Amino acid sequence: MIGIFRAIGGWLSPAGSRARLSILIYHRVCAVPDPIFPHQVTRETFDRQMRLLSRTFNVIPLPEAILRLQSGTLPARAACITFDDGYADNVDIALPILRRHGLHATFFIATRYLDGGWMFNDIVTESIRHFRGASLDLDTLGLGRHETATLAQKRKAILDIIAGIKYLPSDDRDATAARIREMTGVSLGESLMMTSAQLSKLAEAGMEIGGHTHSHPILARLTPVQAEREIQQGKQTLEGTLGQPIRLFAYPNGKPNVDYLPAHVEQVRKAGFIGAVSTSWGGANSPQDVYQLPRFTPWVMGTHRFIPMMLMNLLRRQDSTPDQIIIN
Q: Which terminal residue of the chain has fewer beta carbons within 10 Å of its beta carbon, N or C?
């Protein structure tokens, strides 16, 4: 089947000016399956996906891919791997797998959460996961009442609550998540995010580090001054930590004209980045704006559909953005 997949991929994305670049998005890579979110990629699944990817596509670093996309010199079946947010398991679990398969990836880091921070969606997730009650009344927060007796009910509650607070101003969003944790009486424990030492380990391994703002806000909900500060602060923090230029950027949540606007594209360009990625699905081609490159999220339970889904993604319109299950 690999030969057939390579042939189809070569037809959909030939070398040169007609190439279409596939960019994968990952967030977490779990050690074991998550009973509430079984779609989450595990160590075993990620290893299998990377093996298939390395045999079927030509995986190259994203900075190189951007330059070759612009010059019309991409190889056939070109692909890149990216991770968003800065989870510790990216270093502990994903990095050894990437190195074993000889693959390069770009890691987009929201700097506020380095060294012990918690993203609001993880606060909500872990609070509901460990909540022992059969229902949770969040009417005082304007978030309604949620059944939480079963895993399926907890999953629905988590998704509904995250959707209800995602587009709040950053401070209000984080305060609401903290209040939910207090109301559930859950202790969060150790942070899920990277330390600065782990971030340096990625860079030392030859991986690309990219900006993802400081606090992961919805840029479209900020003033121009606030948005510019978020973009610049994230970049400057990473450069100060690593002592190297930060060349690439990922828009938080990433839906064009919903989560970020043309003005933010210009701010990213002026900040000195050489390219940026969204969460629109599809493959990028040579006329593509390199500051709005589409990416693909491989939400598959197993591996048998992984390469077929990547091939189908190359046929998608570049403005097609399916709903994401977890915050980007």
A: N
